[in-house]
Amino acid sequence: MKSDCKYCIKFRYDRNLCGFIITSKEDKHNHEIGPELYGHYAENRKLSPEDKKQITEMFEAGAKPSLLRTVFQNKTSKLVLVKDLHNIRTLAKSKGTEMAKLAKVGEDFINSKLGVGGE
To answer: Which domain of life is it from (predicted)?
Structure first.
């Protein structure tokens, strides 16, 4: 949710006071704010690595995104978007592909050292 909001607080550390001093602030927002919007920000929707692993396993077992959304919203009390779930699945697939490539490189290397293989 990029809004180019100008809200900003600048401060500096003052050694004499052993603390921070506000040097300037712009406290006007150009968008809605409030506790009801807090859960919509990506950093507040972020799921734990354990939850992501479980989501990946459930996708592999054939679970639908709408079911996963309901399950993990109830489990974590966080807003879970279907888009977040698709991103988790895509990342897991790309990591799996990377791991397969690394395994192939490792296997080829070992085979070349052992003199095994057709290359």
So the answer is: Eukaryota
